[in-house]
């Protein structure tokens, strides 16, 4: 098959989800074409042709030239597909001006003959709901946490048109699947494929009880959605209780300045380190020196970092935000705490510190085994092959 994958940009080194999917499809004889919004992206990626959206903002001369090129494509290269897209959009009551803009700006998506057109994020399918039909391809859409839980809160009915189309949905968790079903999407059109990790890189490493300062870590974007302020408040209670620890926050983001100030206000300056982004190998090294892993998010689709921590045998404490309660099985492979409650998190950390070694080892071993059996890259590849069949 020929599969078009629509993404904001070429996958970065940390986006193993997309890289693994692409390689798996290629190994099974399928052709993958990447469509990216970034007009300055590379033209090749893992033996994939990269088709780039035209640059339609910025320098006026460049924009006018690109508009002319897209109009020529519309008239001489993609006239039938452009007309079909116009008709389908019109049927959805899209205004003439908006319809025309959509046809011009999406010419790069009309250029290839495909079996599947797959939007890598739900938000990328908005106002592009008819493109797959216009090029006579099947349509697939992946929903992640932000697409499914956050964006619709700010943009009511944003998926109304999408839900009326023939679409195959990919979701990360049973919770997301149930939510789509409640919105009227047929169960037959929804496939759950969880994130996966390189279990050879993040190999099992049972962490022994720390003989020094307790090492606690989190890997996350520095964003309000990750619940990091609640985490810091819980750690402040831990410090007040006289427990010695050091907390390392791995990642970067728009909330860094506010979080650094929160660390200062809570009297945790000597207890907290911000590392910024790290490579997978560097993350593995950090995790190997960790006693407890925290992911106390307000919202989370699933979370690869928690899988990596479990694969290495860390005791994980997570919130009950969406996919996290499926990622970690409470009292079996880790612990799940109600979100947005710093005191509850503090109490759970104390309980984990006091766990008997035998009980802790049992949880670690169950976590390792479950990740190896259910969340390997090979298993994920198999599920995507099935998805397109």
What does this structure look like?
The protein has helices at 16-27, 60-77, 79-91, 96-105, 131-134, 145-154, 174-182, 228-240, 256-265, 280-287, 304-311, 324-327, 342-353, 357-374, 377-388; strands at 2-7, 31-36, 44-45, 48-52, 116-119, 138-142, 167-171, 190-192, 214-219, 245-250, 272-276, 292-295, 315-319, 335-337. It has 389 residues and is α/β, with parallel strands linked by helices. The protein has 2 domains: 2-192, Rossmann fold (3-Layer(aba) Sandwich), CATH 3.40.50.11930; 214-374, Glycogen Phosphorylase B (Rossmann fold, 3-Layer(aba) Sandwich), CATH 3.40.50. The protein has an 8-stranded mixed β-sheet with strand order 3-4-2-1-5-6-7-8. The model has no long low-confidence stretch (mean pLDDT 93). InterPro entries: Glyco_trans_1, Glycosyltransferase_grp1. Residues 217-363 form the Glycosyl transferase family domain. This is Glycosyltransferase family 4 protein.
